[in-house]
Amino acid sequence: MTVPNDIAGTAALAICEALLLALNDRNILPEKEIVGLLRDAADAHEYAPAGDHADKHAAVAALINGIVAGGNSVRRR
């Protein structure tokens, strides 16, 4: 049975957020590094070459930037 992309993407996002929280909680990666990692991921999509998927890249960048702004992947101390 195939899993629709939106379900697979939501599951992947939840897993990644949980991993980032665990890495921060265990003092493996500090908040600054996690936020930097997320910003790098957003930048990769924000500055992707223009093409057929420009809208998709913009939406991914906006989602990641929203996660950074909302603090979802780091427990703010």
Summarize the topology.
Elements: H1 5-25, H2 31-46, H3 54-70
Helix pairs in contact: 2-3
> What percent of residues adopt helix (DSSP H or I)?
over 70%
Q: What series of H and E elements makes up the topology? A: HHH
The gross shape turns out to be globular
Q: How large is the radius of gyration?
A: 14 Å
Number of helices: 3
Structural class: mainly alpha
Return the average pLDDT rounded to an integer. 88
Low-confidence stretches: none
Distance separating the two termini: 42 Å
Oligomer: single chain
Q: How many domains comprise the coordinates?
A: 1
Main sheet: strands, sense, barrel:
none
Strand content is under 5%
How many β-strand stretches? 0
Give a written overview of the molecule.
With 77 residues, this protein is mainly alpha-helical. It has one domain. The protein contains three helices and no strands. It starts with a helix and ends in a 7-residue tail after the last helix.
